[in-house]
Structure formats: structure tokens, C-alpha cells
Give the backbone structure.
Amino acid sequence: MPIQKQPVNINFLQGLDTKTDPYQVSVGNFLSLTNSVFDKVGRLTKRNGFSNLTSLPNDTTSYLTTFNGDLQAIGDSFLTYSPNQTAWIDKGSIYPITLSTMPLIRNSVDQVQADIAINNGLICTVYTETPTISPSFKYAVADATTGQNIVEPTVLPNANASYGFPKVFSLGNYFLIIYTTGTTSYNLVGIAVSAINPTIPVTTITLATNYQPYPYSAYDGAIYNNSLYLAYNGSGTSGVKMVIVTAQLQVSGTYILDASHQGIDISVSADTTNNLIWVFYYNGTTAYVLAVTPNVIPFLAPQTVFSNPNVQNITSTVLNGKLTFFYEIINNYTYDSSIPTHYVEANTLSNTGQLGTAYVAVRSVGLASKAFIVNSTIYFLATYQSPYQPTYFLIDGSTSTQSNPIVVARLAYQNGGGYLMNGLPNVPISGITAYIPYLYKDLIASVNKNTNVPAGSQVAGIYSQTGVNLVKFEFTNDAIFSTEIGSNLNLTGGFLWMYDGYLPVEQNFFLYPDSVEATWSTSGGSIHAQPDGSTNTNAYFYQVTYEWTDNQGNAFRSAPSIPISVTTTGSGTTGSITVNVPTLRLTYKISSPLKIVIYRWSVAQQSYYQVTSITVPELNNTTIDSISYVDTLSDSSILGNNLIYTTGGVVEDVGAPSSSILTLFDDRLWLVDAEDPNLLWYSKQVIEGTPVEMSDLFTYYVAPSTGAQGSTGSITALSPMDDKLIIFKEDAIYYINGSGPDNTGANSGYPTSPIFITSTVGCTNPASIVIMQDGLMFQSNKGIWLLGRDLSTAYIGAAVEQYNSYTVTSALNIPATNQIRFSLSSGVTLMYDYFVHQWGTFEGIPAVSGTLYQELHTIVNQYGQVSQETAGVYLDGSNPVLMSFTTSWLNVAGLRGYIRAYWFYLLGTYLSPHKLQVGVAYDYDSSTYQGTLINPTNYGGYYGSDPYYGGNGATPYGGPSNIEQWRIFLQRQRCRSFQITIQEVFDPSYGTVAGPGLTLSGLNCIVGVKKGYAPIPQQNTVG
């Protein structure tokens, strides 16, 4: 009986399917579908091309966004695009960075010093502990990722815990811990803890028997060529010496570096450019630098680099063959010598001995770490000491000056450990990540800081105990996120950045005014000593704020200072009050300087009224430590002046913490605290004409576990959906709803704890979240999922599962289409059409970031090339956009059926010159067996492009139409299955640019079934 021919129709109603076994993908689905869109149901049409805009002036930008409709590009610099000039305008530097923290040491006593080393995925912490009886040196080893203890805190044997303070270095397969022993004569000893198996007994080695310790760092080392070069202060007047410790723990003889000068504080740096070891040391009045070769042969003789008797810490590092060194100078406010305010100076020295010019790198802080280098930039951690807001700041040591201080990150706000009196910790570097231990105040005593009535006696300090934390800084451009609210673009980073169209600066202020003092004088003013007519000598209180107006006219105000009282004297007399206020020396608000605004409360007028001038304000100056303002105004003359903004119980504003996750909800900015990823911060409600105002009183805690659900981890992403804020974790989803508190913190409608949705799936990538008609699409560790508006979850990305291993770099809902586009780290873009509920892919437009600019999809690639989707253009830059697809395996008689495949028809519409490469594979072997090139000749022009009927050059009646149809015979007809691949080809010899090519409407395959099973070779038969 002859085989009955039958058609197998393949209408292009379906999209990709990479979830199903490729041998069993349904007829109509594709195994690959590239550069096609479903603009008509059942038809494949070529996507638009992306035309190049002006490339970025550097290739470090990895994030595109918009502000006020203008295109912005953010990396190491903040760039804005000028379409009229077709140029990028540099608006200043910005520092994309993420930070995370982890506790290292916590117990019931103080830790006053710490150092770390990282080796083989472990972190060794050495520290000085000060219990009530006596100090002690200890070490502990933990997993560097989880913090899980491997070796519990252990006392260092025979340590003299009054001097020297321990340090640790990663040397070969060991943690080499160095510390002081002895009581009348001192030794430097080391114990080697195996980084392979840290629980085995330690090895003790003697490094120096003639060591003279000091409270600072009278020894230091640097690793070079897998050896530790250890410089130390010799006993008596023997000067600075050095020993070398190899990775096998062999100790060299002693080298004398400088027999004439002591080194009570020492910093050692390795110079891989010049093949040198630099030693920077300070003897209590004068500092010196010398350099030796790796064989400790003198290269640069000891050279005086500065003289100053008030230096507390020193550090140095080498960049491009030049030593850069920093030193912390002890300083006090001129109006009160009991209040310290240190600053850091810097200088450089070349390998030829050329000394640079010393300059103040940053004021109001001291050193809190050794200097280190990441991406050819020098950094150091700095510490701000204050009774109320001790804080750490990461400083760009390469460019920071007192007139332009460069703060990269802020952490441990109000919980910092203050000035370091016992030496600086090492900073291990791994690629673009730096690890720094720091002291953290973990026992908090309450303080009365009521800003609406005069405060009583203030507690001198609000903390009583310190522990050791670890901060991990990752210098990456891959974690920038932004959102526009309050007429500003708010950006994540080492602190919350804001951009007002002029310059990127810190949102709000890093610090509020503290250490404010006021004194009474009976001359020179109209202030009554007793304004209430009584003998009250504490009749006046002052508060101070930093205030600044941005380019949009928004007024930003810091938290007010602690209220200070003034003791007046002289019954019935008048006088003046001098108010001394520290300047804000850490700020980006310099070109448009901030104001220092002073408010006064009196017994007679019990509100805080502004006393400083509005028309001639007191301006901030980062190059000085404080200003003095003489208040001469009577109570009656300030009546009606501005009231302090916290009047009526309004919550004070503070600078927001570091974050890499932010969003908008309830007309507020929300972000996740990088130091506590279980804590959400949210702003006051933003109304017309007000900026974003954050407060540490407006936070929302999300517990890391939910009872029987177990730990769900920390927050990984946020997104609004309808009346809810969706809170994502890696393996769970929650939400909150309602309206938040008013500006006094009262009347909050948020639930006391977030409402659990599911632990089936969570979000691992905030850049992947996109809103569409059915809900939120997002990337999880299971692929792309959908959270429906009914809070159900669905694996919407199953069809593109083969791309799950790639990171989504941007996710956009494209206007004027039904498309959601996910750019992937592989360079492929996934396209989901939510009308036909099908997937496809775009190739040729790799993107590290994307945004909507002028309602068009705009991307930037890793080379800084910016391009934008352009309707009617079918080039990506200069490369033609080409359609292609591969069908499923067509096994119409079943997986092992036996068929005869005769030919297939292809139907489409011809739009512009092109060729088609047709490939046919057989029997589940994807290697192309048959290849055919089709060269259409029926070009009739774009639809509508011909002249009118009968006009000159019109296609004659009966000529070729725009219908494109082909019959392709199969060269191997007897088979179990076959698969068709169509690839558009553009030939430059056409003399035109690539055009729309064609549309494709379907395939019609003519086959016949021979029988339900196919023959199989004998060698594949058993049994």
C-alpha cells in the first residue's frame, strides 16, 4: 500500500521551549528563536536595530538610568547625556561600592585592638582584650564567609599584653601571629597556625630578642615574594632592624636598617614596580623613610619626611613605584582643648628620594586602618570620634584633600570605636574586595536627646563596651541602583547618594553638629541675663543644624545638635553669647556650601528660633575646624524667625546607611541597611517641594526566620506592587501594606511584622525585577518567576530555563509593545511577550545595563558603547540584525516512529533583499545534514514604498509580489525525525543597508508514516 502523504502544519504561534526534553518539544515550539518578535499573532517579524549614541568617555560605566527624562551613565564618574551636543557631560566622581559586615568577636569584656589575615577561606583574628583584671592577647580562626568558628578564642602564650599588640600575616600556608613577650627585656615571637588545618598544634618561632615595644606599632611587615619582611624597633638605641621570614618559617639573621633613629611607629610597604621594600617610621618627633632591596641591601638612605611631636598613627603604601604615606595628627578644638579633633596629613616620596609637598588629606578623623590599593586607587579607613556619633569613613587617599574630602563609604554610624590608640589593622585584599576589622560599640546606654525642650544633664558617652566587626568592601560597578523621588535621583553605594541635576553628593549629611559650646558675656549685646524676670541662670539653650539647598530648591537639614545650656550672670544686665560650632569637614557639598544655622530657646520664648542671618548665612568651610558666632539679639527681635524643623515632635533627619537595594513605596524611599540586611529604612512621606528625609527612627525589622519555615535569610530585593511593598529573600517572599507614620513617628499603619507569602521561591537579583500586567517578574535561583497580583507564584521562565545560569543585568517593560526584556550577562537578551505568553531571544545587543530613555530601550555594553532601539532601522551599530530559528524535532510517528519526509513549504512576506540559509538535521543528530541557500528575486519594495499604480517605476501588474513562499525537498526522506533551521543572511553586495528582510508565517511539512517503529542497527540490539 502506498504511503499516504499528510501535511504537518507549523504555525508560528509558539516560542522557545528549553525546559522540555529537546527530543519531545511539541510541534510549533522552537529550540532556538533569535531576533524575532510576535507583533502579529502567528507571525515572526524582525526586531528593530539599536543605533549607536555617543560612546562614553571611559569604559568603566556599568549603569544607565534617567533623571528628569535625561539619560545618565554611572560608574567611576557620573555622566549626563546632552542630545543637543551629542556628548556626555562629566558631573563629578562617584564611588560604586558595596559593603557588608560580620561580627568577629563578642563577649562580656572590651576588645580594644584587632588585626586579621585571610588564607584558604579562613580568617584569623588577633585582638587585645581588656577585662577588669588585666589585658590579654588572643586569636581565633573562623570561616571567612559565614563567620563560623573553627578555632575558639585562644590566649597567646607568654604574651606581654601591655605592649606591642598582636598582628597577623598570611604567609604561605600559615597564619603567622606576631606579638610581644618578656617583662624587662622584650622579644618578638610568632606562632604559626596552619591555614590548612588550624586545629593542629601551633608552631612557635622567635623573631627578635632585642625588641623595644611601644604603645603604637613598633613593628610592621609586608609580604613580598612569599616572604615576610618584618621591620621592628631595636632595644635601647639600636635603631630600626629587619628580619625575613620565609613561607617555610625560616627566620633570617638581623639586618640593621637605621642605627641612628628609633621607630616607635613603623609601616612597611612592598614595591613590586621598583622591586623594593619601603620602611616608614616615626620616633616621637620626626619621621623617616628608607628603602632596601629584597636582599636588604640599602637602596634609599634614611630620609627625613616630616617633624611633628603630635603624631598618633602612620601608614604607607606604594602606587606606581611611588610611596604615599599618611600620618594622623593629634589636634583639639581651639575653643576647648579637651575635645580632640584629629586630622590626617599625606605626602609622597619617589624612589629617587624626591619628597612631595605635604597636605591635609582629610580633617576631623584619624586613621583606622593601613592604607591599601584597589583598582589603582589608594584607600584607608578613617575614624570620627564623638560622644554621640562615633563613625567610620572610607577615604579615597589618592585624591582627598581638606578642601575636597573624598568619602567613599560610611559605616558604624554612632557605633564606631573612636580613635585607635593601639596600632592599625592590616587590610587583606582579594581582587576587588578589601577586608577590614574595626571596633564596634555593641553595648548601648540610652541618652535623652529631646530636641523640643531644653535637655537636662547629658550622659558623657552613650556606649560602654566594644567588640570586633569585619567589614567587606567590594569595589564594583555591578551593584548600582537608583530611584527618582523628591526631585532627586537617589543612588546606592557606600552611603546614600543623591543627584540634583548639578552634582552627585551625599543624601542629607554624614554627621550632625556636635561638641557645640556656648559662653556668656556681659558686654556687646541685647540678650537679657534673666529673660523671664527671675534669677534663672540657665535661661538659654542652643541647637545647631547643617542646612543646604539643592539645585531643585529642596532644603536639607541635619539632625540638630544636642541642646546646650548657657549660664548667664548679672541680674538685670544684657550681654551676648558666643556659640562655637564645629564645621562639617566631611561633605561633598562644597561648590554650593552648606549653612551652619543656630537656633535659640529661652525661658521667655520656649521654642527654638533661628538667630543666624538668613541673608548673610554662616557658611561651612572644610579647611577649618570650627566657627564662632556671637549672638547679640534679644528675645523680642528673633520672635517670628524660622523655627527649628523638629518643633512639634517632628522626627529628626539623618544620613541614610550604605545600601545596594532601594525602591519606592507609599510615597517614600525604602532601602535595606547594608550593615544589617534584615533592617529596612524608610523616609518620611515625600510631598511636593520636599526632599527625601531619612531617619534612624523610621526603620522596619524583617526577621530572618519564621518559626517552622526556618531561616529565610536576609533581604535580597524590594519592589512595590499595587498597594504592597514586596520583600524578597533568596528563598522566600513577604509583603507589607498600609500607610506609614506621620512626621512625628505616630499613626503608622504598617503591620508589626511582614506578611508571609511563600518559601517556594525568592529573588536573588534586584536588577531582574520588572512589573508587568500580571505582576512582578524576577530572577530567582530557580530561574525567572512571576509573583502574580493575587500573590500566587508561577515559573514563567521555564521555557528559557537553559539561560538560568546567567545573571540578569537589566529588566524592562518596553513601551508601545507587549514585551519584557531581560538582558543577561552572557550578552543574550530574553524577550517575553505577555500577550501571546511566549519567549524568544535577541542577539547582537550585549548589555551590562539598560534603561528607558525617550521611551526607548537604551543599553550600554562593557566597552562603554551606548545604543538605543530605533524603529525602522535593522542594524545594531553597523551589524545587520538577522532572524533565525530552529524547530523542534518533527517526529510525527512518535519518538521511534518511521516516516518518509518529502518536502516542506515556507510562507512569509518579502520586505527587503535577503537570503535564507536552510538547514535540515535528521534522527536527533543536530549536525546539519542538508544545507540549502535561497536567494529570493521577487523584491517589490516595502509595502507602500512603490509609486502610485501606473506611476513611473511602479511594479507592473502581474509582476512579482511580496509573498515569499518556497518548497524545499528533503534529501534524506526516510528518517525517524527531522529538524529545520532557517537563518537569514544579508549580502553586502546588495548595495543597500540591511532592512526588515521578511516576515515568516509558518511551515507546512509533507510527510508520510511508514510504521510505528524504525529499524535499528544490530550493534544497538541486546537481549
User: Anything to note?
Assistant: The longest strand covers residues 998-1011. The longest helix spans residues 635-638.
